[in-house]
């Protein structure tokens, strides 16, 4: 039996942005098909993914949408993966990036704006979340988004060691929240119902059929707290509260002097270093 070390290794997935491929909007070789370019192909890919989902997407389906042959598409991209990566970067430009250098003390608002934009992107394009884990995400728009996140977290005053954790806490939370919300909306659309109708129907069925389940009974108070407002408002409220808790957690790990340097806005922003959390300041931390 062959040992794991002896087995041939699969090459790591590369990127359309790393392989010296033709720049966007030009063909790779010879005379390009009339009326077609990479921008148009990428835009059509985004439309199809939004309308039909990732599972149904194919180069043949794309060619039919563009009213060209499949081979015409391959003048501009080598593989389906290249095209998906281009589409993934195209939608990333929808996230509005705050000016993280103008007023560093406004890091809370910067994080909130970036988190909200990321959530909206994931909800608006449910196919994005599975693809994020498939590619390196090093197109120009994803790199700009990444830089804005890094600068916003640097503005907090956390050490570089803790900045990594802050980025993971906030944006992996947003990834999970936005992915679940997007999938919920897809189920709602497939059922031909509104969010409120679907939620009432689902909750009613669970309460009726699992009335004796301890977890369901224990959650009764939590569910009652969600009875006010629409389901859309519930999503927004839960997201805002969760993000506030994340920001309070970041504040709890800051040196009090850093918080004081934020001025009045920082003092009103939430927990201080003496609040909830580890209770360990940056000075006390070994990192």
TrEMBL record:
Location of region: Disordered: 1-36, 266-287
Organism: Streptomyces alboflavus
One Gene Ontology biological process: negative regulation of DNA-templated transcription
Residue span, HTH tetR-type domain: 35-95
Descriptive protein name: HTH tetR-type domain-containing protein
Keyword Transcription regulation tagged: yes
PROSITE patterns: HTH_TETR_2
Gly residues composition-biased segments: 266-278
Residue ranges flagged as DNA-binding region: 58-77
Keyword entries, A-Z: DNA-binding, Transcription, Transcription regulation
GO molecular function: DNA-binding transcription factor activity; transcription cis-regulatory region binding
């Amino acid at each position: 039996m062959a040992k794991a070390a002896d087995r041939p290794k699969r090459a790591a997935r590369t990127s359309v942005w790393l392989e010296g491929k033709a720049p966007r909007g030009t063909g790779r070789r010879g005379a390009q098909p009339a009326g077609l370019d990479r921008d148009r192909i990428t835009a059509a890919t985004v439309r199809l993914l939004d309308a039909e989902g990732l599972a149904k997407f194919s180069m043949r389906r794309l060619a039919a949408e563009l009213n060209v042959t499949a081979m015409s598409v391959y003048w501009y991209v080598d593989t389906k993966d290249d095209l998906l990566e281009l589409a993934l970067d195209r939608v990333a430009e929808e996230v509005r990036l705050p000016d993280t250098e103008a007023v560093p003390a406004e890091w809370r608002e910067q994080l909130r704006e970036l988190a909200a934009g990321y959530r909206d992107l994931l909800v608006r394009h449910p196919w994005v979340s599975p693809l994020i884990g498939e590619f390196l995400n090093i197109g120009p728009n994803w790199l700009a988004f990444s830089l804005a996140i890094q600068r916003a977290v640097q503005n907090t005053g956390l050490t570089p060691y803790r900045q990594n954790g802050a980025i993971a806490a906030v944006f992996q939370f947003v990834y999970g929240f936005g992915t679940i919300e997007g999938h919920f909306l897809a189920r709602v659309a497939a059922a031909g119902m509104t969010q409120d109708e679907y939620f009432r129907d689902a909750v009613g069925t669970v309460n009726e059929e699992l009335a004796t389940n301890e977890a369901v009974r224990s959650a009764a108070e939590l569910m009652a707290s969600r009875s006010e407002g629409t389901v859309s408002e519930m999503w927004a409220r839960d997201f805002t509260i969760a993000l506030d808790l994340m920001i309070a957690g970041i504040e709890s790990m800051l040196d009090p002097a850093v918080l004081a340097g934020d001025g009045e806005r920082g003092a009103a922003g939430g927990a201080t270093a003496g609040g909830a959390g580890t209770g360990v300041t940056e000075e006390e931390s070994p990192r």
